[in-house]
């Protein structure tokens, strides 16, 4: 942990969130973002969901796979100094292990994309290939990043009342 000095800290004394971590959450939760975009679309003639998913079962499978990454995303949103020291301790102990659900989600997502490629008789799909490359990048990032090890072991200290 001594590798990363004060230049890596935010104003609360915790390690800054890497930009690649935000991109990781974006890639793993992409089916939810597509769903939200489709729900917010005001044009009934434009079917956004059919652009990204072949069938409803593909959509529901993608939502189920992305649900694995929802818990780390929610706990990440709570990663800020808290007034209650007990809840901060509890969240810090949970946060320490949130790398594993993200890795599981990436592996499951990559397996699902590979299954889809095999199911389409290995016919090349640029959209599917881009997704596979992105998910593979996310998986390698989650497995190899040294800074993420430090980031997941850090939690902001509780706010002291004066």
TrEMBL record:
Presence of the UniProt keyword Membrane in the record: yes
Keywords: Membrane, Transmembrane, Transmembrane helix
Transmembrane helix is among the record's keywords: yes
Alphabetical list of InterPro entries matching this protein: DUF2919
Residue intervals passing through the bilayer: 20-39, 59-78, 99-118, 124-143
Stretch forming the signal peptide: none
Protein name: DUF2919 domain-containing protein
Organism: Pseudoalteromonas lipolytica
